[in-house]
Amino acid sequence: MNEAVFCLNKNNTNAIIFVVISLASGVMAGETLATINYFVMEPTTDKAIGYETQREIAKGINVDFNSLHNYRIWQKSGTFAAGAFIGMTYGGLMGVVYIFARKYLPFSDDRKKAILLAALMYLAFYLVPFSKYPANPPSVGDTSTIGLRDHLYTSYQIMSVIIALAMGILFFKFRRVDKIKYSIPAIYIVLITSIYFIWPPNPDRIITPMIVVNTFRALTGATMAIFFTLIGVFFGLLWNKFKPYESIKATPL
Question: DSSP secondary-structure letter at 123?
């Protein structure tokens, strides 16, 4: 039986602590992200929606302002619930990966280890996909291509994570073989560059003023960096305080 699973089953108290650390760190980071989005991102989104609405009016399209207003209220009211959900998702992933990666991460301090792992997650889950499909305000783009755009982004994100995970496993397996170990970053760059050119570009032409779009992208990138950093900080602090690793150990790769 896998040793990590065995230890979790063996000591229910530490298993509960592990779950609480993972989810709590994610929720705290997620709610911080939601707060920032509510007060910083939403005004930019409203501005982008205003441009798109004016464009539709100019084209003779009848705009239901009452429905649009109600939709935005509903959308904003769900910001904090969405933040908690996203936080729990990434916090759970952080915890699972940390159990197996902790032994191989540099630094002796769990707080530094956690921040490093969070930075790697930010790279794989967000920064690499962002380089190909940068975030746009919700109103930007043809509604008929939403499904296609979601598919392209999700598949690209999955490939980014798979490549990062594969490179991590390869590094752990050959960490004592210098010729292979030091070539892994180059292999990673080649693979990431390859999928960048293989995946098709965003199918929609952007009509909204680029100052609005670029502001939204910059704010999104910054807030997501804060989000992942906070997951690492909260996770590391809680892990260092409660020390569940005393009975949670992963089998070496």
Answer: I
The pTM score is 0.82
- The whole-angstrom separation of Cα 235 and Cα 253 is 23
In three state form, how does the secondary structure of 146-191 look? HHHHHHHHHHHHHHHHHHHHHHHHHHHHCCCCHHHHCCHHHHHHHH
Residue 246 confidence class, pLDDT cut points 50, 70, 90: low
How long, in residues, is the chain? 253
In this prediction, residues 18-36 reach a mean pLDDT of 95
pLDDT of residue 54: 73
Among 137, 149, 130, residue whose Cα is nearest residue 72: 137
What does the alpha-carbon distance between residue 204 and residue 104 come to, in Å, rounded to a whole number? 43
In the chain, the amino acid numbered 61 is I
- For the chain, the average pLDDT equals 85
Residue from 211, 202, 217 nearest 51 by CA: 211
